[in-house]
C-alpha cells in the first residue's frame, strides 16, 4: 500500500518534483537541427526533464556539419545555440552511439520515459530507371558528404578528371550547392571548412560544364532565390538558359501569383537569360539550366565497361494534375541524349527505418500525427507509447533549418499533452535513463563520445584549420575522430 | 550567455560602422560583400570593450525609443531600445523569445517579425534582396514582415509595434507549405 501511495504522490507532484528524485528521462536520437531544437524546447518546457541526445557519429549537429555547404558559414552559426543546449546541466550529448547496432529502440524505450527519433534521412531516393547502377552515377548526398568531410564518404570519390561535363539531375538547393562547388574557383573554396581531400580533387578537376536538369520549367524550379543568386553570381561563369523555356502559360502565371519564392526564382532566371553574352569564350566554365527533361535511362559506354556515358532524357510538357491544381511533367515521346561521364542525382533524400519502428515506405517517413508515432500508416491511430519523431523522419526531407523549430515545437506540444494523460502513469515510475544507457553501452564496449570529447575534436580541427587559413580543417576518418576524442 | 551577447553587439557595431561609410541603403551590397570579413571581425570583437560601450555608457531615455513586442499569445511587452540597435538584439536583451539562429548575419529567417502598423512599416528602408531571400522562407509571411536583425532603432520608429508570428498554427504534419504572399 505504501508503494501505491508513493506512486500516487509522485504522479501528482511531477511538476514540482526535483530532478534528483525522479527526473523525466528523455532520449533524443540524432543531433541535427531537429534533435537539438527538440532538446532545447524539452528542457525549457519541462524543468524536471533530463535530455540525452545520442548520435551515431562522434560529432554533433548533423546536416549543419555535413550538409550545409562550406561556403555558407553564416548558416552554421546556429551551432552556437546548439552547443549552449548541449552544455545545459540537464542535457548530455552522447556520440558514437548507433541506434540499431549499439542500442535497440526497445532498449531505449525501457530506459527512457520518452524517446524522440530525429535521425533524419541518410539514404537516397532512386529514379528506378535502366542503368542507374552504372559507375559514375552518384547521389548528391554522397557528393555533399564527401566535400563536407563526413567520415562515411572519406574514401568515396567522384572522378572529376576524366571528363569535362557533369549532369546534375534536379534543380533544388542541394543540386545548386553541388553545381556551385563544382564550378566555383577552387581558390575561393580554399578558405572555407571544405574537406581537404575534396579541395584537392576540385583543384585538379577538369569539369567545366554542368547541366542542371529539371523535369518541369523555370516557374516550378525547386530552389530558393538565395542559392540561385549565388550560383548565377559565380565569377567568370557562362550561364545558359533557353529563352523559349521562359515562356509562361496561363497556368504558370496562376502558379506564380500564389508563390512568392517561385516568383522571385523565375525573375532571377529570366534576368540571367536576358543579360550576359550569348556565347562563352574557350575554356570558360558553363552552367546550363535545362528544363522540361525527364531522365529515361542511363547510357552505357560503347565499350560496355559499365561506366555511364550519358543520360537519355524524354522531353516533357506540363499538364495540370487532376484535383491538385499542380502542374506535372508528362512525357512527349521525344528523346534527347546528353553525354556525360559524371551524373549526380539530386532528387531527394530518404529515411531509413530501424527495428521496432513503424515505417511508411511509400512516403519515406514514420507514420505519425503531430510527432506521435503510430502503430501503422493505415487508418488505425493507435500510438506507440512514449515514442515520437521530429524533423525529416517525421515530415520527409524538405525544408530549411528553421523548419525544425516549428516541427520540434509541435512534437513537444504532443509530448507535453501526453505527459498529462497517457504517459502520466508510466512517467511516475523511475527509469534508469542516462545511467542505464551508459552502463549498457559500456558492457557492449561502445566508446561513447560526450560533448567535452567532441570539443577536443572541435579544438583540433580549428587548430589544423588555422595552419591552412581555414576556419577549420575537418577530421574525416572514424579513426582520426575517435583518436582525438578519446 | 555573456560571450554571445558581446558577439552580437560586436557584429552590430561593425555593421553600423560599415553602414556609416556608405550612404546607400542598408545591406544591399555591404552585407553581401563584407559578410565573410565581418564574421572574422565579429569573433575578434568577442572580448573588445569598445563593443560594450554602444550599449552601456549611461544612455539617456531620449536616445532610446519605445518598442512593443506582441508574442504568439497576444501578450505585449514594451521595451526601450537604444538608437542604432537592431530589434533582434533588443529582443534578446529583454528576454523576448525571438529566435536568432544566424545571429544577425542574414542567413536565416528565424527573427521574423511583423510590423503591426503600415505607417511604421513605410518608415523602414525597403528590404534588400538578401533580406527578401530570407523572408521568402519565413513562416507566416505577411505584407509587413521584416527580419528583426534588419530593423534598426531610429527616432522615427518610436512607438513601433512588432508581432511575433504565430507560426505553429500553420504547421501541418505532412510538411509546411509557405503561405502565398
UniProtKB/TrEMBL annotation, chain A:
Gene3D superfamilies: FAD/NAD(P)-binding domain, NAD(P)-binding Rossmann-like Domain. GO terms for molecular function: flavin adenine dinucleotide binding; oxidoreductase activity, acting on iron-sulfur proteins as donors, NAD or NADP as acceptor. Pfam families: Pyr_redox_2 (PF07992). Keywords: FAD, Flavoprotein, Mitochondrion, NADP, Oxidoreductase. Its EC number is 1.18.1.6. Its cofactor is FAD. InterPro entries: FAD/NAD-bd_sf, FAD/NAD-binding_dom, Ferredox_Rdtase, Ferredox_Rdtase_adrenod. It is found in: Mitochondrion. Residues 25-200 form the FAD/NAD(P)-binding domain. It comes from the Eukaryota. One of its GO terms (biological process) is electron transport chain. NADP(+) binds at residues 171-174, 215-216, 227, 399. It catalyses: 2 reduced [adrenodoxin] + NADP(+) + H(+) = 2 oxidized [adrenodoxin] + NADPH. FAD binds at residues 34, 63, 99, 392, 399-401. Belongs to the ferredoxin--NADP reductase type 1 family. This is NADPH:adrenodoxin oxidoreductase, mitochondrial.
From TrEMBL, chain B:
GO terms for cellular component: mitochondrion. Keywords: 2Fe-2S, Iron, Iron-sulfur, Metal-binding. GO terms for biological process: P450-containing electron transport chain. GO terms for molecular function: 2 iron, 2 sulfur cluster binding; electron transfer activity; metal ion binding. Its cofactor is [2Fe-2S] cluster. It comes from the Eukaryota. CDD domains: fer2. InterPro entries: 2Fe-2S_ferredoxin-like_sf (IPR036010), 2Fe-2S_ferredoxin-type (IPR001041), Adrenodoxin-like (IPR001055), Adrenodoxin_Fe-S_BS (IPR018298), Beta-grasp_dom_sf (IPR012675). The keyword Iron-sulfur applies. Residues 65-168 form the 2Fe-2S ferredoxin-type domain. Signal peptide: none annotated. This is Adrenodoxin-like protein. It comes from Actinidia chinensis var. chinensis.
